[in-house]
Amino acid sequence: MRMSELSSTSGIAIATIKYYLREGLLPVGESTGVNQASYSHDHVRRLRLIRVLIDVGGISVVSARTVLDAVDDPEMSLSHVFGKAQHTVSQSDLYVRPPSESARRRVDALIARTGWRVTPENPGRIAAANVIDAFAAIGHPELSDLVEDYATAAELVARADLESVGKQPDVAAMAEVVVAGTVLGDAFFAALRRIAQEHVTAEKYVVYGPVSDAVDPRRSAARPLQE
Amino acid sequence: MRMSELSSTSGIAIATIKYYLREGLLPVGESTGVNQASYSHDHVRRLRLIRVLIDVGGISVVSARTVLDAVDDPEMSLSHVFGKAQHTVSQSDLYVRPPSESARRRVDALIARTGWRVTPENPGRIAAANVIDAFAAIGHPELSDLVEDYATAAELVARADLESVGKQPDVAAMAEVVVAGTVLGDAFFAALRRIAQEHVTAEKYVVYGPVSDAVDPRRSAARPLQE
């Protein structure tokens, strides 16, 4: 297809597509003449992956290129694509700020207990420790105990993630799924957590009927503690 | 404590604290004279909660005020604090953009199957449906099947979340934990998912020794499919 069709199919403006081509995020099309190139459905998919990385993952164009270079490099091991995706997508302050020694040790202890084999460079270590510090800072250090159930859930999700990677037909598709899954998986889980939280809140605190203004769940929320 | 000590204890600049006071995010201190007020440790904790909402949750000062007003309103039901926290923190495009009908139905079907009781307004419904659309857009509709294991994990996490809420000594602390947990819980899970992913990748694709450059996990990744 021509550039104009690539734009209408993907829903991305021609100027933006040209920018991605210049920055090397999108492979050039097959040349069909002077200043003319033909694009395939692979270009449409790649454009959408770029938008996911930038819009959902919130990463920069430069970072998106780093990740996509890793996807496209057949010599890059799958673990490295994972590492690259994790490091690039995880750019919030939580992944950078040095956590306290005690929070670090808490994460180390969790890893030892679960038997997980993880390198010291894994970006999740620092972020998890920073969250533990944040719980303490807001006066709720007891929330760190959530780490146990969260870790169980995280391993369940990671196994599902890796299973979906393993089902891909080739290594290029695997690498693509690793990158997309890192970004979209976080968002997917956060969405489902919000749905499940509403259900569990209703189940736990509102004994009659659905959640409504008619009852005062905050008062009934206090009930289990008072009775 | 005086304003200067509140600043040094919390690590937040005096100008910023004054801004939060003006905007109503932070309750005023106890007046101790003309232009003098005394602040307590509750102010330190509240300041840190504000920073968590803004820095980790990425929400605006105005949105932070909406959430904190809900926390401080004793008439506000716990379900409503949850709803307010979820809606305010979930401001990415995924929570706004209208998803496809088929993706919506997929989420509805999940909710019916799990037996979750959820209102149509839950923000997670739209976000989950948008992620399903994004999987299809990048050419990987099969990733939507992740929803099953993700939902199981999400319910496990939601139960842990609500248990931590239930353990709070009073309704004010409950509301605070709901808000902090919404923001920090997302970050905590994402961090632990990254750690678990590295472990599962190593377990699944690298049969001998730790992940290293010496082996080519991408090639060994392809092996299970070829053998």
Jot down its keywords.
mainly alpha, two-stranded antiparallel sheet, elongated, homodimer, disordered C terminus, 2 strands, 10 helices, 227 residues
Fold blueprint:
Two copies of one chain form a homodimer.
Chain A: H1 3-10, H2 14-22, E1 30-33, E2 36-38, H3 41-56, H4 61-72, H5 78-89, H6 101-114, H7 123-137, H8 147-166, H9 171-205, H10 217-226
Antiparallel strand pairs in A: 1-2
Q: What is the 3D shape of chain A?
A: elongated
Runs of chain A in which pLDDT lies below 50 for 5 or more consecutive residues are: 207-217, 219-227
The largest sheet of chain A, given as strand count, sense and whether it forms a barrel, is: 2 strands, antiparallel
Assign a percent range to the helix content of chain A.
55-70%
> Beta-strand percentage of chain A?
under 5%
Number of distinct helices of chain A: 10
The structural class of chain A is mainly alpha
Mean pLDDT of chain A: 85
Strand order of the largest sheet of chain A: 1-2
Helix-strand topology string of chain A = HHEEHHHHHHHH
- Distance between the amino and carboxyl termini of chain A: 69 Å
> What oligomeric state is this?
homodimer
The radius of gyration computed from the alpha-carbon positions of chain A, rounded to a whole number of angstroms, is 23 Å
Largest interface: A-B, 112 and 111 residues
What's the total count of β strands of chain A? Answer: 2
